[in-house]
Amino acid sequence: MGPTEPDILELPFTDAARGLRYRLSTSDDQASMRTIDSSFVTDRVFQLQSRISNLELGDIGFGLDIKAVQLDTPLHKSFPDDEDSDGDDESPDCFTVVVEDINALSTMDSPTIDPNTTGNNNKIVAFISAKFSSWNARLIITDIEISPLYRRQGIGRNLIRFAEALGSARWPVRHVWLEVSNVNYPAIQSYLKMGFKIAGLDVSLYVGTQAEGEFAIFMWKDVSGSAEAVS
Ligand SMILES: CC(C)(COP(=O)(O)OP(=O)(O)OC[C@H]1O[C@@H](n2cnc3c(N)ncnc32)[C@H](O)[C@@H]1OP(=O)(O)O)[C@@H](O)C(=O)NCCC(=O)NCCS
Question: How many CA atoms lie within 13 A of 203 on its CB side?
């Protein structure tokens, strides 16, 4: 069964074939979102072939090559629990879209939660958070996480589409932008397939963090011509 892409980007959206529901998050979703395993395994990473620090005064230019290299042993990368996104759903320039499996109950389920009033006791299996930067009309994807068992089924692509549409319905978005580590080869591949291009890199972003030694790759996608809307 192939991925189900919504024809009309209206939230909430139910993908009946897969038993998934896409909707805007509420404050009740935070604990369930934190249970998503965002780690990944990769046998390839991107590496810089020329280092920026090699530049010398008098040079008239420089070249940077980012190349995929095969690892001797696969890398299992986890993100620290406290690595929260910049987004804050309480803020009017942020939003989060969650995906819940309507056939699975959340492990965070509690008898104190009334499913008839909150409707939030289904297991959240994916989410995307985004924030609008008004000065350059940029929609920043601050986080996107799909539970391992739900990856490669089109959910990430759908979430990006919902974020683009929802962002464009709320603000005059010109482009979508995100940051990804050079070791996150699977995510970079998926963003390339979703239409993102390389915007640049930052070799200093993770210095002093648990990701020291990695570098940040920025990716962007021009959506100024798209007219999709979402309610
Ligand atoms: C990166 C991530 C969000 C992608 O979500 P996803 O739901 O698996 O992606 P989709 O199924 O929508 O795939 C979208 C496209 O990317 C491709 N793709 C997805 N994973 C891929 C992989 N590991 N390698 C190569 N291509 C991949 C798909 O084939 C698809 O392309 P196609 O439609 O042309 O066939 C997901 O893997 C994830 O949550 N990873 C862990 C957390 C993380 O790294 N978040 C990003 C931090 S920047």
Answer: 11
Q: Domain span at residue 168?
A: 13-51+64-71+89-108+118-222
CA 186 to ligand 1 centroid distance, Å: 6
Query: Which atom of ligand 1 is nearest to 186's Cα?
Result: 23
Report d(CA 186, CA 146) in Å as an integer.
Answer: 12
CA of 184 relative to ligand 1 center, distance in Å: 10
Banded pLDDT at 49 (limits 50, 70, 90): confident
Q: Indicate the number of domains in the chain.
A: 1
- Dihedral through CA 39, CA 146, CA 35, CA 11, nearest 10? 160
CA 190 to centroid of ligand 1, rounded, Å:
4
Whether residue 2 is contained in a domain is answered as no
Which of 145, 157, 190 to probe ligand 1 with, by most ligand atoms within 8 A of CB?
190
pLDDT tens readout for residues 127-157: 999 999 999 999 999 999 999 999 999 999 9
Least confident of 43-57, 98-112, 195-209: 98-112
CA-CA-CA-CA torsion sign (10, 14, 18, 19): positive
Mutate to test the pocket of ligand 1, among 151, 176, 217, 221 (most ligand atoms within 8 A of CB): 151
More reliable by pLDDT, 206 or 8:
206
Task: Give yes or no for a contact between 174 and 138, defined as CB atoms under 8 angstroms apart.
Answer: yes
Task: Calculate mean pLDDT across residues 88-110.
Answer: 82
Predicted model pTM: 0.91
Cα separation, 140 vs 94, in Å, equals 9
